[in-house]
Design goal:
It is a single chain. By secondary structure, the protein is mainly beta. It contains no helices and 26 strands. A six-stranded antiparallel barrel has the order 3-4-5-13-12-14.
Length: 336
Amino acid sequence: MKIFIGLLSLFAASASALVSRANPCCFGLTVNPGGIVGQLADGQNRIGGGLPKGTFCIDSNGALTDGKGRSCILTPPTTQFQCDIGATPNAGFSVACDGTVSYKGSTTFFTCPTGENGESNIYTVAVPNQNKCVKVTLTADNCKASCPAPPPPPPPPPPPPPAPAVKTCPANLAGTFEFPHLIIPVDSTKPTTALGTSFFGQVSSTISTIFNFDIPAADSGKTCSLVFLFPTQSQLTTSSFTFSGNGGIDFSRLSKTATTSTTFSNAPGIATDYGVTKVAPGNSYTIATFACPANTAISFEAKASGDTSLRFFQDFNPSPYVRLSLACLQLTDDLQ
């Protein structure tokens, strides 16, 4: 079908992604889906039927002509895309940076079968009462606009601030520290017997030990570290220990302090379990670090894990390498 009534505008410009040129630029067209756009001798643009490939040129106003210089129009009322001698093309087409062709900003076209040689005409609006029209897009193989550069990737997030360093008990307890003010062993084989205060710390399959520490009011704002020091026998001056097993000791902070009446059955509950620490002679272990609860007393319990058995005299005399304090609480200035 070839009808000429007037010219319609065929090219709407898009500021950032559409071609604009002073001299005409030429290209071939492909229908997606459908194939290459060919031409009949009279200038009708079609797909299918083995027609020779058409050539189309776009000028700076977005008007199209074909390779024979014929003006390309959309014939009303069907909006069939064809090219005619003597017609004056109007602006309205554009080619995006990916080659997509649009008409007045729309990239939607339609192909509808002609019933001739498997060919289909091209429209901007589907033909009424034609049930076999297919919605398609057009792609140009040349004359593509320059794509804008992609935006730079966002900057990486700033690294998290480094965690403040926390001072802990040194191996020789240089600086301020507290020693246990009450040591209470409890025995699961004597659950209601208060064993009273002791100078020995002991952990075994049946016995655990509770250590009370008194934190002075002057230590408000400081950081406390619970440290377990375990020197070798040769480092000791006036103390000694017996040790066997796998070395596992489970340290916990208790919900309240022990007294001389504390037994296995009435021992305070666990507030914080610090887990099992594997210990061996000749080492120092920082069990936990926390804000010092000034002007109060706190308790910690040491229990055997596995087959550990340890009994030691809680002493503070110097040795060649460390000052013996098998359970200590170091006080350091809080780091801001």
